[in-house]
Design brief:
158 residues, alpha+beta, two-stranded antiparallel sheet, transmembrane helix, Prepilin-type N-terminal cleavage/methylation domain-containing protein
Length: 158
C-alpha cells in the first residue's frame, strides 16, 4: 500500500490484481493438466486390466475344457476356437467382447510337447495351451499359456 498525499491508499492496484490473477490461472492450469493426464492413464490401465482378465478367463475355460477329456478331439481339429461355447462367432471369426464393448479375437492353440524334468532324465508328456488375444488389426495384445501334464489329465478323468 502506498501513501498518497499523506493518506493511506485502500485496496489493491490493477497491477497487483493482474499478477494475482496470472498466478491463480497458472496454478489452475497445472492442476487441470495433471487431472487430465491422470484420467487418460486410468483409462489405459483399465483397458489393459480388462484385456488380461479376458485372456485369463479364456485360458481358464480352455484348460477346464481339456480337463473334461476333450484333448484328443481338440488336437485333431485345427480350428480350436469352435469348441469353446463362451466365444461368439461373427463374419470375421470368433470373438469375445470386453467391458468397453471392444471386440477381441482369441486364438487358442493346443499342441503336445515333451517336457524335461530337472531332477531326472525322464521326460513328461505335456500339452501346451496358448491363448493369444488380438484386436481388429490382428495385432497380438495379450498372450498367456499353460502346460497341462498328461498325468494331471488322467488323474482328472478318474
Amino acid at each position: 500500500m502506498k501513501y498518497f498525499y499523506g493518506h493511506k491508499e485502500r485496496g489493491a492496484t490493477l497491477l497487483e490484481l493482474l499478477a494475482a490473477l496470472i498466478i491463480i490461472s497458472f496454478i489452475v492450469l497445472t492442476f487441470s493438466i495433471f487431472f487430465t493426464q491422470s484420467q487418460l492413464f486410468t483409462k489405459n490401465t483399465e483397458e489393459k486390466i480388462d484385456i488380461v482378465n479376458l485372456n485369463q478367463y479364456i485360458l481358464y475355460e480352455a484348460v477346464d475344457f481339456l480337463h473334461e477329456g476333450n484333448i484328443e478331439e481338440v488336437l485333431q481339429n485345427e480350428v480350436h476356437n469352435s469348441y469353446f461355447s463362451f466365444l461368439e462367432q461373427s463374419e470375421t471369426g470368433y470373438f469375445i467382447q470386453g467391458n468397453n464393448d471392444q471386440m477381441y479375437y482369441p486364438f487358442i492353440f493346443v499342441h503336445r510337447n515333451e517336457v524335461q524334468q530337472e531332477e531326472s532324465i525322464q521326460s513328461l508328456k505335456a500339452y501346451h495351451v496358448t491363448v493369444s488375444l488380438r484386436d481388429e488389426t490382428n495385432e497380438t495384445i495379450s498372450e498367456l499359456y499353460e502346460l497341462i501334464y498328461e498325468t494331471d489329465l488322467k488323474e482328472g478323468l478318474n
